[in-house]
Amino acid sequence: MLKLLGRGMSPAKPGVPGPPFSMDNIFGLQLWLDASDTTTITDTAGSVSQWDDKSGLGNHCAQATPAEQYTTGSRTQNGLNVLDGVSGNNMDGVNLGLSTYTIVSAFVRDSNSLTNNTISKVSGKNDALFGSDTDTVKDYAGGDKITSIDTVTIGDVAIAVNTHSGALATLYLNGLIQGTASYTMLTGGASYQIGAFGGFANQDQALLEIAVFNRVISISEINQIGSHLSSKWGV
User: Which pTM value belongs to this model?
Assistant: First the structure.
């Protein structure tokens, strides 16, 4: 269950439903990959060749090699489609080149003994959000900077939030802060990757939803997104 930081969202007034939440309600959205929206997925017999970005910026990711493609239409979470990934599956996007950013990632691991990268090279250089063969989530920026205190349970939805700004990184897992660390962020011309970091694409997990913002979003916004993803994906 997601544990809200701070006070979270204010309750809606009785009898007055609020507007439905959408990730693009949050300012600065640069990338939004949503496996539940099958209209954004291009596949051949379930093998995914492209996953379209819903931010409106066209930052799609793709994989042309059949042996490295995720599978769609074979698995669900809370009744919603997910992308099922095994070792070797990965996708390449475009260069985002962000030195300040927030990553939100929702996933389900089937094993904790693999690298289990969710997304990397958001900076275009040397960052990653991954498992590193453990039951934790790690923030990488030229080295393991933060390792989560809490662990990821196989088969359960996990929601990780990772922020980078200036020389400070912060990692949250399932609504709880896991730590902060100093780092030197390098930007470059590399494309972001899904499920891999460079040539390392060993994973056993389902990807549900990934979003990237070009700023450090607030605790209130983290709560808002976390509440939405928890309800949507059945945390």
Answer: 0.92
